[in-house]
Fold these 2 entries.
Entry 1:
Amino acid sequence: QVQLVQSGAEVKKPGSSVKVSCKASGGTFSSYTISWVRQAPGQGLEWMGRIIPILGIANYAQKFQGRVTITADKSTSTAYMELSSLRSEDTAVYYCARDSPQGAFDIWGQGTMVTVSS
Amino acid sequence: SYVLTQPPSVSVAPGQTARITCGGNNIGSKSVHWYQQKPGQAPVLVVYDDSDRPSGIPERFSGSNSGNTATLTISRVEAGDEADYYCQVWDSSSDRVFGGGTKLTVL
């Protein structure tokens, strides 16, 4: 059974960067596509981008282009999401999720709370 | 960009049927996925490809999709079904898109 375990909560200053990890266990990591989705307090879900680890290719939502970098380390079955130039509006829970072959997110990490505050 | 529109809230009495809609331009031509999210928890996939259920999801959860509206139907609603529900599609211009979410209240 595939599980995604994310790194712990972060508190960051405006203008800084944050890097969140998502470690997969079970299954074959390289065959997945891993997406990142965020949820601001009291708000809905927002897709940020994804990576295909076996190819090392990442795609990003237009809103986050230039500010987000998604990478993967096949040797440790871990995906990373780095968001730069943080502002208060980036305060949110960040989730990693596996893209199923049908294009749905069938397995989710537990979420990582990122707080941006001066 | 592609937009999915959901009602902010739906209320239903226990044992009744809840229907949550997801509107989008020609959404019937796309595969729609539905997620359930309870407070403080990660979302859970409850319906994929319009009407299929992942293993472990009760048969009470079903979906349909036609024209400009997709619908998640929850039959014989239970108190434990109270949650936020989100629809999601893939669009060629916007990639993954989520609806704004619907809060289901069990009266």
Entry 2:
Amino acid sequence: EIVLTQSPGTLSLSPGERATLSCRASQSVRNNYVAWYQKKPGQPPRVLIHAASSRATGIPDRFSGSGSGTDFTLTIASLEPEDFAVYYCQQYGGSWTFGQGTKVEIK
Amino acid sequence: QVQLVESGGGLVKPGGSLRLSCVTSGFTFSVYYMGWIRQAPGKGLEWVSYISGDGGAMYYADSVKGRFTISRDNAKKSLYLQMNSLRAEDTAVYYCGRWNTAFDYWGQGSLVTVSS
């Protein structure tokens, strides 16, 4: 099973700042099959990125994904108030797994 | 518009059973893989199970293998999760999701509480 480790656990930033979230896999992810989701309390997750760098339909371009092999990154170019949430990576190159999440909170 | 609506959650004693349903609309159900994902209180997301469009292939997380069974009825555009031998650690909100190179649509979730 591929284990995904997200860092940092919590990111304290102000609106307008850049957020960089990391997702490291315990082994190489086939075809870079990594997705990123945003999760807010009381709501289902929302997909942001699939296949490491492809933005999902309707997702603003301030969200971008990058990486390959074992290291993947979600970048939010300039935080909007609605972006403060928990973010999860997921790999689907092998048996599917999620990372433990990164909380982006208002500083 | 695409909609997924879960039902069937509730309070059950350890060792008991529960069947979750997910009724869908707004898309051609039979061509999509579908899955169940859960989130325990204060915890992260955990993939539980998924099934191919024709129902011929099913996959399970190790934590539920042998206890949970995923199925679908393409005529009814519905997805199911039969949960047996429930444990306290199965307590979570259970979401159904449509798989399209990621889970692109989700239901609102159904709370399952396993407690005596």
